[in-house]
Amino acid sequence: MIPRVHDMGTRTIGLLYYLYGPGTHEEHIDPHLVAAWDSLAPDPGRDPNATYGDLQRLLDQPVMALPKSRRPAEHVWHLSVRAAPEDPILTDEQWADIARRMVAATGIAPAGDAAACRWAAVRHADDHIHIIATVVREDGRQARIRQDGKRSQEEARKIEIDYGLRQLNAGDGTAAKRPTSAERHKAEREGRERPAREELRETVRQAAAGVGSETEFFDRLAAAGVLIHKRVAPSGDLLGYKVALPDDRNEDKEPVFYAGSTLAPDLSLPRLRERWSGDNTPHQAGETPPDHGAGSAPSGPATARRSAATAAWQALLVIDQGDDAVVAAQIAAAGEVLDALAKTSAAHTRAQLREAAFAFERATRSHIRAERGHDRALREAARDLVYSGPALGRGEDGATTAMLIDMAFFLVTAAAHWHGKKQHAQQAAAAREAAEHLRAAYQAAAGMPIGVLYQRGRRLSQPLRHKQIAYLRQAVPELAEQVLAEAGWYALAATLADAENAGHDPAALLAEAAERRELDTADSISDVLVWRLRRMADLPADASAMPEPGTTTAARTPRRTAKASTSRTDRPRKPRSF
User: Fold this and answer.
1) In this structure, are 130 and 249 located in the same domain?
2) Which helix (H) or strand (E) holds 34?
3) In this structure, are 72 and 24 located in the same domain?
4) Which domain holds residue 493?
5) What is the per-residue pLDDT across 27-86, written as a single tens digit (0 to 9) for each?
6) Which residues pair with 122 in a beta bridge?
């Protein structure tokens, strides 16, 4: 059940016309009163002799009894309460009870208070009611309704239990503001995929992914085609900004601007500056500085994706071992990587990656304040993804996209586990939702490169295939039979043969890959190990142009152990001592 406190209003009659009217799309059916402050309150929906004006005058009576100088400018309080789609249809009597509980919980009409505010609950659809109230009490005082939104949410959780409804996760006040009903209806009328508020939030998030300065941020926003208005102090200092879609206009044909802070708490200019200042924090002990400078870009999308997969792995170690503020920073930066990946990936994965980034955005904020600077590797990875440009859906670009999505899935899953341990219910649920979208995106991205490896594995000679089975049983005896039963085993066998051709010790490399992270959440253990091995051994992610295993005539380099073969940037970083 979702209660929503709307903005305070000035005209009681205007809201009544909407509640009893046909709705924007004729969606209001049989509008009628289900409860009110007085059982004799007129119902213009069911009583032909009652008018909107009759109900309005009674609701406004305590307001009008005050001298004009004491009447509040905004005196109309509005709360909507909506059931979940899967909930049973409630009766009018049940909605009446819910309305009474809501006005009591929010301070509009506490139980037993004879001088409380006047209110009315109108039902014009099966799944929700609207409560209208005037905030001046019968005794002339104004109602104490501070934190009415929070208190309505708390009461909704109790109502869900009492009525056997779907139980939603409790909020903590860190979520971005939802689009209003007017914004949603406007988007529907104009044929927009999402309300302007959500479109702008996604655009600003993508513009902020990995940026290192205000100039870079505003340049990206301008390139995205949004209108920008900067708030500048008399001294010339920049105080804030707001953005608008060029074609989103109000009734006066003026652009509808949204401040960064109203799009999401972490998109205000001061919070964005925290990210940029963190980029100047020295690397912690054991971290490897990036190979490219701050202003340079990687050689291409495949390189950027491979580097981002390594940064994601290093972030996994921090989430496992770091303190809360550092983990919060890593999770926030993981959101930047998802935004950058969604922006630059090929069409067949973009929709699911956008949905993953959209869902995970909720998981990037909690009451634990991020300690910026330790997230630098992920933020640089996000920046590289953006500046390397769009990736193709095939070849090395497509294969390294699958590699990165695979690692991002584990990163997002680790974030869900961490939030769950901290009892951050909404954030944990958002991370789990993002993981499901990443799972779908992986299936779209991995089909071709895994298929190539599968065919290579099928073509291995019987002695060579038996050799790879022996490596598997030597390295991970507890997983061997499960892996051998998977269709992806052939792709893993080909990868082990490629690693050996490249001079690695396949068994040692495989043992290290399996130890690096739990595999219980993987749909295919073989797939996960394929990408870990190909990244650790620096093998091409797209094997279509590689020589068949066992056919290479070039002199092979001496075998190396997994430890020796792992590049410096691929080694786990030591977490800072806190």
Assistant:
1) no
2) strand 32-36
3) yes
4) 301-570
5) 788 999 999 999 999 999 999 999 999 999 999 999 999 999 999 989 999 999 999 888
6) 33, 130
